[in-house]
Sequence to fold (269 residues):
Amino acid sequence: MQTLVLHPEHQLSILSAIKKGYRNFLTLREANRISTHFAEYFSPIIATELSLQLEAFNIRHRVYCEELHLEPIQENALEQDEFDAYSIHCLLKHLSTDAFAGTVRIVRPTKVAELLPIEKFCSDSITHETLHPKLFPREQICELSRLAVPAEYRRRQIDQFSGAATGVINQEVYSEKELRCFPFIAVGLYLAAASTVLNHNISHTYVMMEPRLARSMSFIGIKFEKIGPTIDYHGKRAPYYINPHLFFTHLSLGFKSMFNNIIKQLEKK
Fold:
C-alpha cells in the first residue's frame, strides 16, 4: 500500500484553500442570518400615498437638514426638491413600532425636460464616454438619491457617526469580514430600490455618492462602477453607475436571499 506524500508547498496550498473556504462559509452564514432576520424586523414600502411620501420627506429633513446640515431647515420639517415630482420613494417600516427606519428615492424621468440630479448639478463630472445618462432614452435611466437613516435607528456606539446617516460603514470599525456589523437598514433600502428599478425595467442607474459609501456597498457585492473623478459636492463625492447585469453578477449569495425576500414582501403590498 502506497502512502501519498504531498510536497510542502502543496500542503500549504490545500491548508490555505480550507481556511479560505471556512471564512467564506462564516461570511455566507452571517449574511444568511441577516437576510432571515431582516424580514422579521422590517418591511419595505413603496410610498404611493401622499401621507407616506410626507414621512419620507420628514426623515430626509431630520437627516439632511437637522443632523448633517446639508440643506436649510424648513418650517414644515419636510425636505423636498424639484426631483420629487418624478420620483419613486421607498421606506422601511420597523414592524415592532410601526415607525419608519429609513428612506431612499429613485428619480425616474420620463420627459425630455426632466433631468437627473447628477445631470443638473454634476454633469461635467461624468467622464465615461459611453455611460453618460444623456446618451440613453429618458425612460431607461434613473438615479438613487436621498438615502437617509434616522439617528434613533443607529443606536449602537459603532454607528454613532455622521456617515451612518447615509449608509456608510465606519471603516475604523468595520471590515469586509464583519458583515454582522453592517448597518443593514441601508442595505435594505438599496435592495428595495433595486427591486423597484428592475420592476420598472430601467436599464441604467446612477448615484452621486462618497467613495467610501461605494466601498461599503461593495462589501456585500453591490459593485458600482465609478464613471468620473471625485469632486467637492456636499463633501467628496463621485458619479457611479450600475445596471442589472453588474448588480446580479456581484451580489453575494446571502444578500441575494435578502433581495428575493424583499421582492416577495413588496409583491404582497
Remarks:
- The domain at 9-268 is CATH 3.40.630.30 (Aminopeptidase).
- The chain has one domain: 9-268.
- The chain has seven helices and eight strands.
- The beta strands are 42-46, 87-94, 99-107, 141-148, 204-209, 225-226, 231-232, 236-242.
